[in-house]
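Blinded run. Sample ID left blank on purpose so nobody reads anything into the name before looking at the predicted structure. Input follows.
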Amino acid sequence: MLSGKCVVIGVTGGVAAYKMPNLVSMLVKLHAEVHVIMTANAVNFINPIAFESLTNTKCLVETFDRNFQFHVAHVSLAQKADVVMIAPASANVIGKLANGIADDMLTTTCMATKAPMYIAPAMNTNMFENPILQDNLKKLESYGKKIIAPASGFLACGTTGAGKMPEPADLLDYILKEIACEKDMVGKKVLVNAGPTREAIDPVRYISNHSTGKMGYAIAENAMLRGAEVTLVSGPTSIAPPKFVNVINVVSAQDMFDAVTANAADKDIVILSAAVADYRPTEVADNKIKKKEGDMSIPLTRTKDIIATLGANKPEGQFLCGFSMETENMLENSKGKLERKNLDMIVANNLKVAGAGFGTDTNVITLITKEDVKELPLMSKKEAAAAILDTILERI
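Blinded prediction complete.
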């Protein structure tokens, strides 16, 4: 995912420095070129060899290291970096950066780079809340630097409060948002729905389906990484929602209908991937289903058709994409749905094909528009999400 990208990680003197090899390892596994710069105080918390073993590059500490391969090391890395992240960022280094002091390898590199910069403060709560530190963070933000708010929790100093560095996986999300994808969807507003819905039969049982939401979540994440403003309307799932996405959680088909129709009007692209329950138990006066003894049947009523409603009320210029899951006559049935519901594209798959459908990390999809049919091979759902958005962008 990060092949060809250069990430510079700055590590300052703080207990949280011990977490940073995990972030570096994650970046290397994503094929990024990673360079680590440490302050003199940082080496008291973790040995540079740990980073060198992971990155296969020299961990820089001294500004005038005559054994380094570049002629002017801080300028070379500053020019090469696609993104710079300082984590943990001490109060000392934050103060230096805010006031233009460049007296070591890390601060000189930061002064020389034009790459996007993320700063993750980590320190004692009183230090973090100090007005001087807060003013320095505001000053850095005014210069275009991006501050990652610390978490609250039990700190190494024995106190509890704000100042805890976010976990490496959270820091990785910021880097991926910045450089993982070309920003070809900046300015686009996207609505995606995903997951199943549940229709209550009684306080214990409900009608649902096997949807996990993986496909819709992958589409929402890919759109976010490409710079779009994304709203995700999600039924109940067991997967974590993508970061930096506005998530609206719903349960029933009516909840899904209300949330989608309320948020769709101003969107440039609407992608309806949710497996909404087609039926709900018929309502009765006392909210109980009355049956004869031994009768296991449940009277059902069709739920509202979200796709048809949006298709009938589609604003000019909006691209509407639906999904079709079939067990037979996939192309014929999907083309019919495309026409009937006024869609611009439909993503079709056959649930009988190996690797497609619910509960898998892969999919086999066919992209159908009024103009053509594009059959795609077996691929991961993340790859399928990118292919879906690529095709949409070609048509808007």
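Unblinding after everyone has recorded impressions. The chain is about 30% helix and 20% strand.
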